[in-house]
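#struct-help
A.M.: can someone run this one for me? Single chain, 182 residues.
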Amino acid sequence: KQVKSGGGWMIGLGILTVIFGMISIGTPLVTGLAVSLMVGILLAAGGVMQIIHAFKVPSGGGRRIFLILAGLFAFGFGIFMTTRPVESLLAMTLVLVAFFIVDGVCKIVDAFGVKPEKGWGWLLASGIITLVLAIMIWRRWPVSGGWAIGTLFGINILFSGWAMIFTGGAVRSLGKEAGDPS
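D.P.: on it. Structure tokens below:
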């Protein structure tokens, strides 16, 4: 019964996650700004923690000063991101474009490296789609900064939710097969 119950919970959480993913996709600017703010807060907090940590390490070799500088940089960048979320969102969009370009090229090169193994075409297609997406976002920048991060984040949440639903269904099925009473 616990197995089926766990599967039911996973399905329920998956449905909720799918709903949040759809909301994120439907409000990409709001989602993008929320992501930008969250990254800024986490960077600022991480910077503070790194500065605190710097005072706990031995000061030999100038290590402490580099840790403090890195912490100050993270804190300052985090504060910038929280006070200038629109500009941060635009910058994150450019970083995303750069990542997609590198990722797409690497997938394409890897696909030809594993050719003629089964599935190499899927890897090639993934690389091409990633490059096309990078070009689409780049060509529409800075306008794409208003939708790219939020939409892609929402798609990620949506697929995570569907994965939870399908996994929960599989867990429930396993519970039934194992003789779990209904």
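A.M.: thanks! The longest helix spans residues 85-114.
D.P.: also worth noting: The CA atoms of residues 44 and 79 lie 6 Å apart.
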